[in-house]
Amino acid sequence: MSESSQVEKLTFSQKRKLLARALRDIRRLSPGFVTAQVLISVTEAVMDFVPIIMSGMVIDGFASGKSFDYILTVILIGVAVSFVLNIPGYSIKPKFTYASVYRLTSGIEVMLNEKILSMDYVKIENPEIHRRYDRIKTFALNYDRYDFGVYCEIVNKIGAAAKGITYVVAALVVTWELYSAGVKADGMAIVNYLLLAAVVAILVMQNTMRSKSIIKEENIELSDDTVKPDRVRNYLLDNYFGEYQAVKDIHIYGNKKFVLRRSDELFDKWHTSKLRKDKVIRRQQLVDETCDVVRSVLIYGFVTGKAVAGAVSAGALVQDVQSFYRIQQGFNMAIESLTKIDNCMFPLKLIYDFLDIPDEKYAGSLPTEKRDDNEYEFAFHNVSFLYPASEEYVLKNINLKWKIGEKMALVGRNGSGKSTLIKLLCRLYDPTEGMITLNGIDIRKYDMKEYMDLFSVVFQDSKLFSFPLAENVAASMTYDGEKVVDCVNRSGLGDRVLAMPDGIHTCLYKDFDEKGVEISGGEAQKLTLARAIYKGSPFVILDEPTAALDPVAENEIYVKFNEMVGTRTAIYISHRLSSCCFCDDIMVLDKGQLIERGTHEELVKRDGIYSQMWQAQSAYYRENPA
Q1: Which of 41, 174, 272, 625 minimizes the number of CB atoms within 10 Å of its CB?
Q2: What is the pTM of this model?
């Protein structure tokens, strides 16, 4: 079994701490849910004994010649007690059932999402973090394994265990007369107690085997034979069958048979694993049915022996037979529930280990200066950076500075470190070596949120949501409509928005709204530019957001955006030099080092990398005019 499917063995102390933490979270997310579940389970269990006790009393009443009034009183009392015991179910259960289940189901996902959104960005890019999150989705958030998630599973099984224990205790109370009653024939007493011992032995053996069977089922469910085919098949379903955009590729390349065949093969592997699990379940069902038959024969023999000896009445005999059945049911229910709670500990550990991943980045506390003159100066001092678990520097000994108001370009071949430099500037990463300063102060000392507010960044892979256009531009559910319209117009998308059915309130894409509008890649980039304008930060960065566009369209967007920036600082990142030649200052990166800096005219005159790239690209444009 590979590491991805290994279930870690936990000590009793670890399990106790995990369960205690889970119960605290459950109490926080849904106060009173566990108490309500236990109360409902206990009252339901006690209520099941009302007809058992009442039937025995009625039979004994008739047998002993009790009056009709006595019989009627017993029945009415039984009805009244049942009504009272039903109150928790009718009053409490509706209150907790749906709302509490939803809070617990979404609660885990909210905690995980909050952790991901607040986690150091360098960790989010770490493949190990993604692998750990995938394990959580497989083992803890898999609703095929748990009804509504692991928290709800724990609450449900606590309730089931409480019900099972109540069954056992209540049955022992009802049948106490049977245990304590004297038997006239000593020989018969020995036989009866041997029968009772055999019943207990079979019950213990059955539940021991049941517990092992549950664990074996869980191991099969978590094995690679089950997990891997299911994950890959879900990938196909989500990314091909569930995404209409992928259908065009399937049509063009004729790979429908390939996708369907691969899906069928994966299903067959998953189904084979499930058959192994079903075999374990059927084997345990056979054991349960055999034990139930043997135990029932022994119980009837035990009770009949007591009745023949005259130790119990006819009514007590009826009570005892039914109570013995409840003892079996309660014992099985309690053992199974406690075993399943124990099986929840490993998924809980995956969740809490993920939530406890420490943030190594210092958040800072200094407020950033609110300057009317926008006199901000950034500087890199011998900055180097390498990714975790990597030995190769992405950036090495970077030294540069610039002030607000300058228009700068950062150019270089793919993989030269351009985007990494920007992520360091925005504090998505911290330098491995060296320091970045703002107005002479290490940026790590500034309050993280205030520092982030200085930047509006349009990344190459910026995302838009399937929500109204205005919410995408404002990055908020509340927004200034006039400001949204102004930013959209300035980004060059005003006419397109006017043609939309609901203007700025039109939903992008059709995921959730039939009237949603599908926008092109170029239009999406213009909306991300509008979002950067709306934020109004003094520092604006375009990190190759137009890489998917043709050079002419890219140049138009860059030139237009340069006009919109005004006096704010702008950094343009591109490997297409024509898009950035209008900038005041151009920096050239190569293999993680800053090797050239100057204006376009100065760099073209040098026989350096910039000049070589410019000559190669301009020759291509001359040979291939748009």
Answers
A1: 625
A2: 0.69
